[in-house]
Amino acid sequence: MRRGVAIFCDKSLWTGEEEWQQAVKKVIQKYLGEERRAGKGTFKASEEPWEKILARSAFRFVKIQDVSIVRNWDVESVIGYLFSTSFAAPHLFGNQLDKFKEEVKNTLLSLNPKGVFQENAVWSIILGSKKPRE
């Protein structure tokens, strides 16, 4: 029996390159500051990619597959996504939550009054497996 691990990941809105993502990030930063939040502190990205970390583990045989997708968003799905993250969780905004939500909505609709936004994303699938037992 072969044992393995799979990591699925893509970029977050915070690191997104679409115009609408960058505009929303600016709104977040207006309310919460320049640094990306995470838990009770700020986010520190790992300098080491997942595949290198896996290669040092018991799951030494690593394979990476990238899958390009187009993801469609509307205003409510963007706001819902934001509120599910550690960098824009509702509690971070205190009594300015409704004001923030309205500003995100207005910012998005100023970019596209139809309220539909595309994201060209890449899902990375990182597989690690152990050497089979003999």
Structural class: alpha+beta
Shape: elongated
Q: How many beta strands in the DSSP annotation? A: 5
> What's the overall average pLDDT, rounded?
91
Rg over CA atoms? 18 Å
Please give the largest β-sheet.
Answer: 3 strands, antiparallel
* Beta-strand percentage range: 25-35%
Q: Please provide the ordered H/E string of secondary-structure elements.
A: EHEEHEHHE
Q: What is the number of helices?
A: 4
Brief summary:
This protein has 134 residues and is an alpha+beta fold. Helices cover 34% and strands 28% of the residues.
Structure overview:
The protein has 134 residues and is α+β, with helices and mostly antiparallel strands. It has one domain. Helices cover 34% and strands 28% of the residues. The protein is built from 4 helices and 5 strands; from the N terminus they run βαββαβααβ. The protein has a 3-stranded antiparallel beta sheet with strand order 1-5-4. The protein has a two-stranded antiparallel ribbon with strand order 2-3. Strand 2 (37-38) and strand 3 (41-42) form a beta hairpin. Helix 1 packs antiparallel against helix 4. It is elongated and about 60 Å long. The mean pLDDT is 91.
